[in-house]
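S., here's the first fold you wanted:
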Amino acid sequence: MHTNQSLKTLKNKVLQGGIYLTIRQLAASALSLVSVLVIARVLGPENYGVVVSAAFILYFTFWTAKCGLDVYSIRQPTLPKDAAEQILAFYNTVGIGLCVLLWFATPLVGAWTGQSVLVEVLRWLVPVIWLEMVASASIAMMERELRFPQVGLVETLAQVSNYAVSVPLVLLNWGYWGPIAGFVVQFTLLAVMASVCYPIAWRWRWQPQFIGSALRSGLAYSGSNLIWNFKTLTVPLVVSRLGGLEAAGIVGIAIRLSDQLGMLRIVIARLSISTLAKLLGDTDALRRAISRGIIYQGLLVGPVFALFSCCANWIVPLMFGKSWLPSTQVFTFVALATLLYTVFNMHISALYAAGHNRDVARFNAIYISLFWLAAWLLLPVLGAWGYGVAELFALPSFLALHFSITRLCGAPDYGDAICLIIATAIPLLAGPWLPFYISLSLLVASYSILFLARPTLRSIPLELYAAWKTPKPAK
C-alpha cells in the first residue's frame, strides 16, 4: 500500500512535470499553428483538402509500417548488440518494398475517391515513407538512451524546415505543391540528422528469429494503436469520396484546430502510463488517481474548446477567410468528441500500464466501426457535418473502457467529470449559432455555476500552484 506522503510526493512530481511539459508544448505548437493559418488561408478549402487527404494517408502508413519495432527497441530491457542494425535492415527492405507497392497502388486511391489529383501527389510522397522509417530506427535508439533533448532538436529542426519551405512556396502560388514539397524536405532532413546523431550500419539481412520475436512484442503493445490509426483514413477515403475535396479541407481544418487547441492533453498522456504503473499494486490509489486525472484532463481542454467555439464566428473568417466558416460548426462536434476521449484517456493509460492491451484494442475496434458506419451514412446527407455528427454516434464505445477499468480497479468517480463535460458542451455547441456576447456570457455562467456547485474543482488551481511552488529535490 502507498502511504499518503508517498502519494503526495508522486502527485507533486507529476504536476510539476506536467506544468513544465505544458510550457514546452505551447512553445512547440505556436509555429505549427501559424504555418497552418497561412497555408489554409491562401489555399482555400479545396486545395487544402488535397494536402489533408495526402497527409493523412502518409501518417497512417508511417504509424502502421513500423509494426511496433520502434516501441520494442525503446522498451525492451536488453537487446542484442546488432539489434539496431537488424531493425534498420528490416525497415530498409520493408520500406522500399512498401514504396514500390504504393507507387502502383495510388491509382486505386484516385479511383476510390474520384479525385485523380491525389494520384500524382501521393506518388511524390511515397519515398517519404521509407525516409521516416530510416529516421525512426535511430530516433528510437536515442530515446532508449534517454537522449530526449537531442531527439527534440532533430524533430524540431525538421519540422521548421517544412514550414520554411511550404509557406514561401504557397505564397508564391505553388498551390498544394508547397506543403507537399515541405513534407519531402522535412523527412529527408529528419533521416539525415537522425542518422548523423545515431549512426547505424546499413545492412539488408536480419535474423528472422530476432525480428519475429521483436514483431510479436512490438505489436502486442502497439496493435491497439494500429486499429485506432484507421480513423486517420476517414478523411481521405470516406470524406473525400462522399463529400469531395472541399469537405475534406473543412473537416481537416476542424480536426487541426481541435488538435492544436487540445494539445495540452498530451502532457498528462505522456506522464500517465508511467505514473499509473506505480500504483498497480494498490487498486484504491489507482482508482483515485484515475478519478482525479480525468478532471485534470477535462480542465486542460474543455474551457479552451468552449472559448474558441464562442469566438469562432469572427476568429475563423479573420484568420482563415470566410470560405472556412463552415469548419466552425464541424469543430463543435469534433471538439466535444475529443473532450470525451481526453477524459477517458486515463482509462487507456491505466489499461496499458496493467498490460491489458486487448481491452484497449477492443474499444478502438468498436469506436472505429461505429464511427465509419455513421460517417458513411451521414456524409451524403449532411456533407462535412456528417463527419462531426459521426463522432457523436461513436461515443457509446466508451462504455467498453468503463467496464474494462471497473474490472481492473473499480469504477472511478465521474461526478466532477460529468458536470465539467455538461458545462463545456452547452457553450461549445451553442457558440457558432449565437452572437459573440451571448455565447461568451453563456460560457461564463456555465463555468461559474460549475465551480460554485463542485468544491473539488475549485481546489485544482490551488493544487497546481502548490505543486509549482514545491521545492525541487537537489540533484
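And the second, which I think is the more interesting of the pair:
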Amino acid sequence: MEELIETIVKALVDHPEDVRIEEVETSSTVTYQLSVHSEDMGKVIGKQGRIAKAIRTVINAAGTNERKKINLEIV
C-alpha cells in the first residue's frame, strides 16, 4: 500500500525526494501519514481537497481485502 501511495504522490509533486510515508497500525485501522515538501502541499491536497479525496478513494479501493479501515493523513 505504501508503494501505491508513493507512486501516486511522487507523480504529483516537484520534490519527489521529500515524500515520506509512515504506517501506523492498530487492531482495527491502518493509518498512513504522508509528508511532502512544504511547497508541494497544495498539489497533494488540491482545490477544495479533491486530489486528497481521490487518493483516499484509490487507497480504500485497493485495501478492501485487508478487513481494516484505511486512513491517509497528510502532515
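Why I say that: The first strand starts at residue 20 and ends at 25. Residues 13 and 28 are 31 Å apart (CA to CA).

Talk tomorrow,
H.
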